[in-house]
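User: Could you write out the 3D structure of this protein bound to zinc ion? I've included everything you need below.
Assistant: Certainly. Input first, then the structure.
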Amino acid sequence: MDRRFLCPQCGAYGLEIVKAMDLLPDNRSDDVILQIVECNSCSFKGLSLYEESRRGGMDSESWDHTGFCTTDTAVAEVAIFFSQCSALRDKRCGCEAHKKVVAATSRGKKWRLALLDQYGCEQTFIMTCR
Ligand SMILES: [Zn+2]
Ligand SMILES: [Zn+2]
């Protein structure tokens, strides 16, 4: 968790995952993790979603790590959900906060943050590390 990612706002590798919640995957993914990211070099805060699939044999492992630029209010709301759960890294945790986050991350073709329909999302970006 000490990896730094490219910040979409200042362009430095200052983006850190400060909190993460594992979610029960659907039938397409094996791991789905919602993360709060913050930049050490500027004031940027955002959300990111990590999705990994190990289906279909050894050569077909695939993952997707997408960042979302949104409002501080949306990030703060997710932070409140995270603070209400005592087992963030347990994807089978059935607490109210987990249920709310799962409801906020409905997927169509791929997982996406339905909660951003409410708050808006200026852009998405690929989480890139050095
Ligand atoms: Zn930055
Ligand atoms: Zn929970």
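The first strand starts at residue 4 and ends at 5.
User: Perfect, thank you.
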